[in-house]
Amino acid sequence: MAKSLTAGELRVEDQDTLVQKLKEAKEELFNLRFQSATGQLESHGRLRAVRREIARIYTVMRERELGIITVEKESSDG
C-alpha cells in the first residue's frame, strides 16, 4: 500500500475489498512494527499513516453497519 487511502475512496469499495485492504494494512503494520523493534525502520511516519488507514477502514465499515452510509451500486442500463 504505497499511498494513503481517503475515506471517500473507501466508501465506494464493496465489503470484500474493504476486508482485503484491512488485512493488507494490518500485515504492513506488523512488518513496520517488527522493523522498528529491530532498528531497521527508515520511515517512522509510515507507522502513523498505516494506523490511520486502518482506522479509516474500520470507520467506513462501522458506518455501513449503522446504516449511516450505503454502498452505491453502479447500475448497468443497457
UniProtKB/TrEMBL annotation:
<dbReference type="InterPro" id="IPR001854">
    <property type="entry name" value="Ribosomal_uL29"/>
</dbReference>
<dbReference type="GO" id="GO:0005840">
    <property type="term" value="C:ribosome"/>
</dbReference>
<dbReference type="InterPro" id="IPR036049">
    <property type="entry name" value="Ribosomal_uL29_sf"/>
</dbReference>
<dbReference type="InterPro" id="IPR018254">
    <property type="entry name" value="Ribosomal_uL29_CS"/>
</dbReference>
<dbReference type="Pfam" id="PF00831">
    <property type="entry name" value="Ribosomal_L29"/>
</dbReference>
<comment type="similarity">
    <text>Belongs to the universal ribosomal protein uL29 family.</text>
</comment>
<protein>
    <recommendedName>
        <fullName>Large ribosomal subunit protein uL29</fullName>
    </recommendedName>
</protein>
<keyword id="KW-0689">Ribosomal protein</keyword>
<dbReference type="InterPro" id="IPR050063">
    <property type="entry name" value="Ribosomal_protein_uL29"/>
</dbReference>
<keyword id="KW-0687">Ribonucleoprotein</keyword>
